[in-house]
Specification:
Blueprint: H1 2-8, E1 26-35, E2 39-48, E3 57-65, E4 68-78, E5 85-97, E6 101-115, E7 120-135, E8 138-156, E9 165-175, E10 185-198, E11 202-215, E12 257-270, E13 273-285, E14 293-304, E15 307-317
Antiparallel strand pairs: 1-2, 2-3, 3-4, 4-5, 5-6, 6-7, 7-8, 8-9, 9-10, 10-11, 11-12, 12-13, 13-14, 14-15
Length: about 325
């Protein structure tokens, strides 16, 4: 009771005993899902949160779908403050066989991540990759050594279904033949997510993705560096990565630049169900030849016990120009 605590106080100080229990050392995750981008999908993960007394971690993730298969592994070493600074060695394999391109990538990299303030995370990295790809008439194999710097800011009132929040990030990366790459390029990307609630039943969601690339030879750029649009997280109503500049044969080959924006209004219907209307617009393009595509439609969301499940119907919209 409050009186007992006061009786035990000595010189204005109350004795407090804190008991902590360690979090699980080994974690496994398994998930299944489906989307119009990838079709049915299986995912599994493994984490060893305490490999040794220094707090080293091992994190791996496997994702398998009909057209995309990937494996990533990260060995993380904490630095001065384990909560705010760490060094990572990463590796990965990705195989993509979609309508627009085929691409097989092996990657090995190092990362230095540091929380700069309450919400900003800075990551400096160097990745070495080997990519074999086919995009339209371009068939090639590239070897890239790519330094990059990334800043990411995330703020929200809660992790799942936030009522207020935003995410802002930007990245600059590039390489040159002088450091052993097959080609030279420099690329900058910006992304934004914004959520605001008004009243008790309404949310407004907006997002923006933009990027610009300069390269010595665009035909040698692998799909991971080119920009494409279309799909669930881009312009709904169009298939995944099917929008962008085309070659002489009409094949979508991607662009140097990207600009995609979206606005969505969501309203609580009943229980854990929500309705939505949305408009997405933008495209991948070269130079200043920007020809935006627009998709619009309706959505239904369910806050299930396993997480949000979303169902959208998107339709391409025709833009009339003089």
């Amino acid at each position: 009771s409050e009186m007992c605590i006061r009786d035990r106080a000595e010189e204005g100080q109350v004795p407090v005993r804190v008991v902590l229990e360690p979090a699980p050392r080994i974690e496994y995750t398994i998930g299944v899902g489906a989307s119009t981008d990838y079709g049915p999908r299986f995912r599994s993960g493994f984490r060893n949160n305490r490999i040794n007394h220094q707090g080293h971690r091992l994190i791996s993730d496997l994702s398998v779908a009909k057209e995309i298969q990937g494996l990533t592994i990260e060995y993380r070493i904490p630095l001065r403050d384990p909560r705010h600074e760490w060094f990572s060695v990463t590796g990965g394999y990705l195989n993509e066989e979609i309508d627009t391109f085929d691409n097989e990538t092996q990657r090995l990299g190092i990362r230095w991540s540091k929380v700069m303030s309450e919400h900003w995370l800075r990551t400096v990295s160097v990745d070495a990759s080997h990519e074999s790809f086919e995009v339209g008439e371009d068939v090639d194999t590239t070897r890239l050594i790519v330094p990059a710097i990334n800043f990411d800011n995330k703020t929200s009132d809660r992790d799942l279904f936030p009522r207020h929040g935003h995410r802002l990030g930007f990245e600059i990366r590039g390489t040159d033949e002088l450091i052993g790459s097959s080609l030279s390029y420099v690329q900058a990307k910006v992304w934004m997510r914004w959520i605001r609630s008004f009243g008790q039943r309404n949310r407004l969601l907006a997002r923006l993705n933009a990027g610009v690339t300069g390269s010595s030879d665009f035909s040698k750029l692998p799909p991971s560096v080119r920009f494409f649009a279309g799909g669930d997280d881009s312009i709904r109503g169009f298939d995944y990565n099917t929008l962008g500049p085309t070659d002489a044969e009409g094949n979508v080959v991607g662009g140097n630049n990207l600009l995609v924006a979206s606005i969505e209004y969501e309203r609580h219907l009943k229980g854990n169900f929500y309705g939505a209307v949305f408009v997405d617009a933008g495209n991948a393009f070269d130079d200043t030849d920007f020809d935006p595509e627009v998709g619009a439609g309706l959505g239904l969301k369910w806050r299930s016990p396993l997480g949000p499940i979303r169902f959208y119907l998107g339709y391409p919209c025709l833009l009339y120009t003089s």
